[in-house]
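The protein record quoted for completeness.
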Amino acid sequence: MKLGDQMPELIGETTWLNGYRERVDLIGEKPTLIHFWSVSCRLCKDVMPYVNHFRDHYKGKLNVIAVHMPRSKDDVNLEKIKSAAYRYNITEPIFVDNDLQLSDDFNNQYVPAYYVFDKHGRLRHFQAGGSGMKMLKTRVNRLMQEMNNY
């Protein structure tokens, strides 16, 4: 995806955990963070407390969706995904992408990866890797300020 691209439809899931969201639910009121992770990704697990803190800090001001993107055949085990979600306190809706359809729609090849969309559903920021939570926070704060100036 390129900056300014529209958020893809959230379709092709194996299942949803912790609720269900459609693209139409995410556009219009507030920005959206979609983060990709995998049960086999150590870095994802290491940074999940920061993602959770981020999610909780922006509660009510930011939509947050997790996408589980498998990296191997072992990663498609739904019980392992549920267990990891519980263990790492992933309480936001989780799109389980075992067929990699959403990952392909995003052209995403990385975990962890973070996509920030404005309230109109346009991609405003992308980053991958475990560092850079400060940059993510800066980008989301800038988006919040822009919303207040509308």
About this structure: The longest strand covers residues 32-37.
